[in-house]
Amino acid sequence: MAKYEITVNAVKQIVEASPDMPLLWVLRDKLKLTGTKYGCGIAQCGSCTVHVEGEPVRSCMLPISAVSGSVTTIEGLADGGNLHPLQTAWIDHDVPQCGYCQSGQIMSAAALLANNRTPTDTDIDEALAGNYCRCGTYIRIRAAVHSAASYYRADEQTETHAIDAENGGAS
Q: Under CATH, domain 1-77 is a member of which superfamily?
């Protein structure tokens, strides 16, 4: 056993774990963050997706000893208690059926939208290709990602108008 200091959802944590313990089990068993799910255990289904330094990774295969940088889980996407735009879109589009894969789907989609505010269907399909939904709600998943993307674009447009107003209307 060794002690590891990791930052999870912007909070520094010290955990004691075996060096080969997967990040998934550190999150679920040590830190009690159970939103990240165990699916296949071989990094194929995407249910365990979290962000490490903003990049989506499969936490079931990443040993705690290899974690460097900040980790964000599905619990960490919400901002000050407000749902993330993807979480809201998931609800609005009735995406989940069983819901088991949804945290991984949302985390992969969040990584996509962090870099691409105007994703095409192909962009979404490629970004979420490694996330499997046994219920087959892929059409609703895609619609929810597009809705969240439009939220971001509207928010950015509002910010631009506010900055223009502060500058006396000049761009």
A: Beta-grasp domain (3.10.20.30)
